Amino acid sequence: MRRRPGLSARLKLTLSYAGFLAVAGALLLAVVWGFLLRYVPDNSQGLLGVAPNRYLLVRTFAPAAAVAMAFLLVFGLLGGWLLAGRMLAPLTQITDAARRAGSGSLSHRIRMKGRQDEFRELSDAFDSMLEQLDSHVAEQQRFAANASHELRTPLAISKTLLDVAREDPTRDRGELVERLHAVNARAIDLTEALLLLSRGDRGIVIRESVDLSLVAEEAAETLLPLAEQRRTTLDVTGGPAWTGGSAELLLRMVTNLVQNAVVHNLPAGGTVTVHTEAHGDTNVVRVENTGPPLPPDLVPTLTEPFRRGTDRVRTDEHAGVGLGLAIVHSIVRAHDGTLDLTPRPAGGLLVTVRLPGTPQAA
What we know:
Blueprint: H1 9-35, H2 54-102, H3 118-167, H4 173-202, E1 208-211, H5 212-229, E2 232-238, E3 242-245, H6 247-263, E4 270-279, E5 282-289, H7 324-334, E6 338-343, E7 349-356
Parallel strand pairs: 2-4
Antiparallel strand pairs: 1-3, 4-5, 5-7, 6-7
Helix pairs in contact: 1-2, 2-3, 3-4, 4-7, 5-6, 6-7
């Protein structure tokens, strides 16, 4: 934004300091005149014939007062300039850091030293903002690179299949169509997951009252055939838990959790438990499943996009795109909630989602 040139903050403070000293000096002279000189006799004999009269005192005092006022003005300008420069030095550091951040350098930190004051608070807040921006930009760059890689894979496979079919006209067209259909379906699923993840990151525009227990029952009913196919017991327990948000996104959140719990389970005889409850102003959705033990260092990476732990990679028909828990994390953040992943000692995972509560709708 273009602005007309004006006085700097340092010059304004300098003029303010000098003006304050000049006004203080003028008030002091006015006090001297008002409470001292006006009581001195104004005659040729003076006070009791020995003290000078008012005329002589004024002639003697006026030049000295003028010199003092000039000294105060010069001292105010010089001292104010130095003092303002010293006081505004932290602001200069913050401005330089802001310019560097504006040019794309988010790794710089001010880390201003000294005792706590307003400038140090501003510096710490600016450093915290830069740290969050740097982390967010790095996450977005990593996500874009991973998304590009994931989207390129099905396209490359489709191109290879088409090249093979073109070079070998006698190849079975039915098999080619089936493989292309599977690759295309995976690309569509990945694109829809990316769009849903982006929607969750943008936040919730329209909020409504949602009962998480009903959402859990709907998700379990949808995934019950999958659980029966994999010989896994799926149970829903708990009571009503009302929260505010998007019913569609919350259903997708619980569905992803339940689907992950069913798929990443024992080959047979596994269990999945979905529990909902309300604790004061907080509502809890807890999804617990059996399964192979998870390394502790693997759990924190499960919510990152396209991060599939070695022990959780699947090659069957339910192979995902690596965005299930990332979408869950995004939806939880959009609803101002928290997501906790805890590996079970006996194997499997315990996922706990905490969301703000809301009064039950009439």
